[in-house]
Design a protein that fits this description.
This protein has twelve helices and 17 strands. The chain is of the alpha+beta class. The chain has an eight-stranded antiparallel β-sheet, with helices on both faces. Strands 8-7-17 form a three-stranded mixed β-sheet, with no helix packed on it. Strands 4-9 form a two-stranded antiparallel ribbon. A hairpin with a 5-residue loop joins strand 7 and strand 8. The longest helix has 16 residues. The chain is globular.
């Protein structure tokens, strides 16, 4: 186990200490008000951590504090990690972004798109083109989530038992077969809809590599990068460090809720949201991207692959609002595009929060987030463990206050 530590003085790193106090004060206020159980926030410049704060509890009932080595359910922050794993296979020549998904997963060989529904009869048509690996990485595949209530295909996912994105009683292979049996919301490559696509990508990783997803990522990503706690389960030795998961209550407070079981290897290995990690692990992950694919003498990806991953791939260079379908066509998605597994800022003047051009990253449903700002040589990560009823406002304050702290 390696623990994240502060390595640089804020002033020497181009950060204003008073502004960082305001950042910590706002996050602390939310804990003291009962909105969050606790938090960890870390800000680094040029790869050196210049601000690291922990506050509050990782487990309120047990009275255990958040510490630098606390383990977090990172949920959808798993997606960029799975994508990086898949990109190592691309560099090996075993996979291509333009491979048809059906080449590796035959159930997807003839994708069909939803047309309409009359009673119990669903009418579909053949997709206008094949479903490609790049469509999975960019969430332009036409797949969806069962918890959306914006399209009839969302309801078909619920009817198939996919409320938690896993078909009951199945593993990753079985669940992706269920996805394949459902129609797409739109033709592949034409629109953006955040979805179960990275689970399908994780299954392709398994098929191409011949190894389970957790084994493959441990061999090709976690161990090479020194991500010593990252994985899809927690050991007995790690268990006490795992943060309790909470959900928002009707009165704005929080209460414990069940999380994805992590004791013992899960049957369903979710490339979309199954990981647990420490702040040290994710700092290492951000660093290999910031350094264009190399870290401490280990080259994980070529610089060109990282550049490809972190540029906008949406149709016509659109942002998430204009390329997205409901519920994604909202003002909060203006100025932000999507690369391979990460969001990418394409127009800072149109984003709701202060953002640097080309900044990239992603968030998790338990209110965790990271981003890399290449122009400012800045990396930021934030963790708590609250599943909000809607988008959490803490992200907006976090970005504003971090950017207020920059002095150069």
């Amino acid at each position: 186990m390696t623990v994240l530590r502060q390595e640089a003085d804020p002033g020497e790193a181009g950060l204003d200490a008073k502004a960082l106090e305001r950042l910590d004060g706002e996050l602390t206020r939310r804990v003291d008000a009962g909105e969050l159980p606790g938090f960890l926030v870390a800000v680094a410049r040029a790869g050196r951590v210049a601000h690291l704060t922990t506050y509050g509890a990782r487990d309120l009932a047990a009275g255990l504090p958040v510490e630098p080595d606390t383990l977090w359910r990172i949920y959808s922050m798993t997606k960029p990690v799975t994508t990086v794993g898949a990109l190592t296979l691309v560099e090996d020549g075993l996979l291509s972004l333009d491979d048809e998904v059906g080449r590796h997963l035959p159930a997807f060989a003839e994708p069909r798109v939803y047309v309409d529904c009359s009673g119990d009869r669903v009418r579909t048509r053949p997709a206008s083109g094949p479903l490609l690996v790049r469509h999975l990485m960019t969430h332009t595949a036409g797949l969806t989530f069962a918890f959306y209530h914006a399209h009839p295909v969302d309801a078909l996912y619920r009817a198939a038992g996919l409320e938690s994105s896993v078909a009951p009683g199945t593993d990753l292979a079985g669940t992706t077969d269920v996805y394949a049996g459902l129609p797409l919301r739109f033709d592949p490559g034409t629109r953006w809809n955040y979805s179960v696509a990275t689970n399908v990508l994780g299954r392709i990783v398994e098929v191409v590599s011949g190894r389970p997803l957790d084994v493959f990522l441990a061999e090709r990503v976690f161990r090479p990068l020194g991500m010593t706690d990252a994985g899809f389960e927690v050991t007995d030795a790690q268990a006490e460090r795992l943060a309790e998961l909470y959900g928002e209550t009707d009165d704005g407070g929080i209460e414990p809720i069940p999380g994805t079981p992590l004791r013992g290897r899960p049957r369903f290995l979710s490339g979309s949201g199954g990981m647990v990690a420490s702040a040290h692990d994710m700092h290492r992950f951000m660093e290999v991207l910031r350094r264009h694919g190399e870290l401490d003498g280990t080259r994980l990806l070529r610089p060109g692959t990282v550049r490809l991953m972190t540029r906008n791939h949406l149709p016509g260079g659109a942002d998430l609002r204009s390329a997205g379908v409901p519920p994604h066509d909202d003002p909060g998605n203006e100025g932000v595009g999507f690369g391979l597994g990460v969001s990418v800022v394409v127009d800072p003047s149109r984003t709701r929060e202060p953002s640097g051009l080309g900044s990239y990253g992603w968030s998790g449903v338990a209110t965790t987030t990271f981003w890399v700002d290449p122009g400012r040589d800045l990396t930021v990560q934030f963790y708590t463990q609250v599943r909000p009823r809607s988008s959490h406002t803490v992200y907006r304050d976090l970005k504003r206050l971090v950017h207020e702290a920059l002095t150069d």
